[in-house]
Amino acid sequence: MKFEKLVKFADWATRNGWKITQADGGKNLPTEITERYDIPLEYRAFLRQFSLFTNAAENVWFLCVEEFLPKSEDKFRWNEFELISLAAADEGGETAIVDYWDRHFPIIMSVKNGYEYYAIHLESGKVIHGCEPEFEENTVIAENFLEFLEHYFDVGEIL
Fold it and tell me: The pTM is what?
């Protein structure tokens, strides 16, 4: 079964010092998220499985359901990079930024070496990487989420 890769990845992450908490199934994604994004099945399975998935330094983390819940303005939000881009956009540039983020569902955020993220391109399913200062410029990392996880068994580190 292909979701066995989630379990293997969690085992790998635990052996490499990541902090992981199993989800209890009590929280759901906000309607704002489910209406905006058609989240791929593989990542929905990840969201059902884990409520916390972060490296030991807590500067690289997977976005789990908790990260998508409303937060106060002074907390790092799931769409922080979209918000930064919108704040810096030239007049009229906001539409292109929102369109980009409508098509890219963020799955990992990092503040380890500056601001970076991984996201799933919703039309192709590919996992992409982007970073500051131009968050909307990206590089394809894997053909899908499960291939992305498998890739990191070999690499040994995310971001």
Answer: 0.92
